[in-house]
């Protein structure tokens, strides 16, 4: 029994060091194993060799090494990190078989559960590659990414229950929970849901703080919205997740600007947004564009078609509300006229400067006419209203959210200042740049 306790203590020390990214301590632990008589057996020799490769793979993983070629120390033809983990998984599987044959229950249990952990790593690498690829190639829809991530988390939720793997399980869980909260927040923001988005962003923040604290990288100073200490001790993966959270928080600040303005001042919101480095202050960006371009108005419009339970942008719990604050088209009387349908279907999310109902109805009417153009999410719909002598440029950055710029007179559809701004801002609001930046060196 004492021998088994020493074996488990060795494994606990090793996995504790790896989970806290103390790879030098993990190496020292493996080096000391050569002098331990109770670790001298064929099964242990195989496991210790595999653990050495595992520590090297984990060190590469947390610094986003799955986007780079690996060193030759792994001795396999395809030296991508995903292939390294797959090769390592097969080695661990062999060790599991050997340990069962010789009756070493400790190695068998750890090897079996470590294999499950390696499967999760491989699937997460594939998911990160998917995210980065989507960010580079097409408009981002977080709802499309969410299902894949939820399946990964569900499949591996109970992996690594062995005592020796407790710290490793905790570190893996923190990463998955942060990622899941952020992807869900992205999906909720696309539906303009205030409270779920807020709670998910807060949940991601608390887990990022817990992860950072576990790495010993935080000072005793109190945390404030959007401010994370920069430190070389924090791995690139953690830094990117913080960047993703900041980007989504900046989008939250724009979509719910009017709601936040009821609780504080515009200057306070601006100061808080400035702390979301390196994220963009979208409110300031739109204000600057409206001023420089001479636009009559720059606005964001939300289409709630089919959302029978949508309650608007405030602190509302739908199940406890006796009547909805905004009706969906299915709830509007068939006898209602077109203006009533538009009023109940669309909501003005944000506008600079605040404009009259006429501009809002004009924009929403054109949204209905331009459904096919706007559905691609990467094309600008341009219309000139002969009657009102105004030009309207529109682009969807999420399926239900449209960014529009209104100008007096006829404005050329080749005005690169306007079109470039709308395309660039829409890509940033969707998260294309955030996801594309997951690969080190990407712009």
Provide the spatial order of strands within the biggest beta sheet.
Answer: 2-1-5-4-3
SSE order, one letter for each helix or strand: HHHHHHHHHHHHEHEHHEEEHH
Q: What structural class do you assign from the helix and strand content?
A: alpha+beta
Which shape, going by the Cα principal axes? elongated
Q: Can you count the beta strands?
A: 5
Low-confidence residue ranges: 218-232, 320-336
Distance between the termini: 56 Å
Strand content: 5-15%
- C-alpha Rg (nearest Å): 26 Å
Oligomer: single chain
User: Kindly state the mean pLDDT as a whole number?
Assistant: 84
Helix content: 55-70%
What is the number of helical segments per DSSP (H or I, 4+ residues)?
Answer: 17
Largest beta sheet, briefly? 5 strands, antiparallel
Structure keywords:
elongated, single chain, 17 helices, alpha+beta, 5 strands, five-stranded antiparallel sheet, 443 residues
Description:
This protein is an alpha+beta fold and 443 residues long. The chain is 58% helix and 8% strand. It is built from 17 helices and five strands. The longest helix is centred in the first third of the chain and has 33 residues, at 105-137. The termini are far apart. The model is unreliable at 218-232 and 320-336 (pLDDT under 50).
